[in-house]
Structure formats: C-alpha cells, structure tokens
C-alpha cells in the first residue's frame, strides 16, 4: 500500500469504506481495511442493503430511497466518534493532571 495512504490511515480515527453493487472493489480496499484493523482503527462500512459485511465491523446501510437519511446516519456516527474521543482525551488529561498534583504535593511535603 502506498505510504501516503498508510499515513492518512495512521492519522485517522476511522477507516470508512463504501461498498455498492455498482462499485469496483479491488484488492487495495481489502489492504486498506486490513491495515486499519492492524492499527486498531475503527472500521465503518457504508454498504448496499443486501451486501454481506463481516459482523465484527460497523455497518451503515445505504438507503437508496432516502440518501439523505444515509448521510445523516454517517454524520451522527462520526459526531459520536469525535465526542467519544474528546471525552477520552479529557479523562486522560484529568488523570495526568491528578498525577502531577500528587507528585507536586509530595514534593512540597518533604
């Protein structure tokens, strides 16, 4: 896989793959998914309703009768991921702050 794609996957929270009946899906798509999985990235598929996707992956089904509904679902999923990541970063920051405070207070007491 080209280095620029590896770099983009490394800097992303999600790998999003669109699978349709009309699409041309090469082995490069499988390589991107495999690389994303190896890097512990969340994998999200947008897929036509009757395409089988491995159950270990998150799937949003494409609603061809209401494409806007599909876009809303994708947007909501990404917003939740951003919110979850922000909360995770906040908790990590609070934990680091608490450790620093404990270290500083132990130094002050000596």
From TrEMBL:
Keywords: Membrane, Transmembrane, Transmembrane helix
Transmembrane segments: 90-107
Domain of life (superkingdom): Bacteria
Record's protein name: Thoeris protein ThsB TIR-like domain-containing protein
Originating species: Candidatus Fischerbacteria bacterium RBG_13_37_8
């Amino acid at each position: 896989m080209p280095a620029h794609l590896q770099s983009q996957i490394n800097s992303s929270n999600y790998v999003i793959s669109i699978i349709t009946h009309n699409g041309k899906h090469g082995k490069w798509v499988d390589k991107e998914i495999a690389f994303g999985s190896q890097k512990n990235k969340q994998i999200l598929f947008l897929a036509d309703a009757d395409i089988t996707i491995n159950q270990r992956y998150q799937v949003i089904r494409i609603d061809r009768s209401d494409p806007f509904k599909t876009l809303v679902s994708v947007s909501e999923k990404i917003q939740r991921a951003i919110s979850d990541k922000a909360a995770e970063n906040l908790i990590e920051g609070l934990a680091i702050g608490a450790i620093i405070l404990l270290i500083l207070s132990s130094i002050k007491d000596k």
